[in-house]
Amino acid sequence: MERTAKIIDGKLVSQAVKDKVREDVLSLGEKGISVCLAVIIVGDNPASRTYVNNKKKACKAAGIISREYALDENTTQQELLELIDRLNKDSEVNGILCQLPLPQGLDEKAVIASISPEKDVDAFHAVNAGHIMIGDYSFLPCTPAGITEMLDYYGIEVASKNCTVIGRSNIVGKPMAMLLLKRNGTVTICHSATKNLADYTSRADILIAAVGKPNFVTADMVKDGAVVIDVGINRNSEGKLCGDVDFDAVSKKASYITPVPGGVGPMTIATLLKNTVTAAKLQNNL
Ligand code: NAD
After folding, report:
1. Alpha carbon distance 41, 72 (integer Å)
2. pTM for the complete prediction?
3. Rounded Cα gap, residues 232 and 243, in angstroms
4. CA distance 131 to 168
């Protein structure tokens, strides 16, 4: 039977998150507390510049102060670490974000490790990753947390469902799997070395694709009535933005699906704002 999946509207859900953030920022303001995010960008990667501009714009709309630190491509590791050290000690800065990827020659792992876990609003630091592992956390990585927010908004239950995550990156796949596990999903993680991928995807009640390849998930890989979440941000052969999922065909089989653009992407930024407010509250013992 052909169906048409319900669209999970990331713009709608992210607006609800941003409205709540704005309310929280206003009520902190009434207590004399301002909320500030420091954003570091190194070099002139155009995609990074777009992401940083979008984050700054979102901060402004939410009433969060954003401070940009745009560093030259030739910045040394030591200069970058010194800046992060200053921001860690700056009591006016609640959250610190260093836009990745960094130019060659800079050590991303060392940079992530140098951000104070209390200000690590991307939740990439090993301390925060460890908290996610044991299911006890203040900040969650923005993309997986945004996805759970969308599932909640649409009343999609995770408990006892077969959940398959394609991708095992530290920023999406692994933490996504942990969050689904915390909600009592039965979770399978697939990756580049998985054999017979379709065996796992076709069993999934909830399928999360975080691969980075256009049209990677085809309709034959998807169970009838599955919830399909497309994390991928790719360009197709015509240069148009697209996800990992063959949207037209899969939306005739799925019960719910996220579009690209307008699905997971807006949730990532909304969660970043939410994490920044959480950081400000924690730092003020609220
Ligand atoms: P990544 O490159 O770190 O990870 C990709 C994963 O895909 C890897 O774990 C790899 O094992 C898996 N993979 C590759 N080929 C595979 C195959 N043939 N079969 C099964 N698995 C395979 O990427 P990432 O940072 O996790 O991002 C994934 C995608 O999500 C990218 O397109 C990225 O741009 C996008 N992304 C979107 C958002 C958002 O806000 N929407 C946020 C982060 C990442």
Report:
1. 9
2. 0.96
3. 4
4. 18
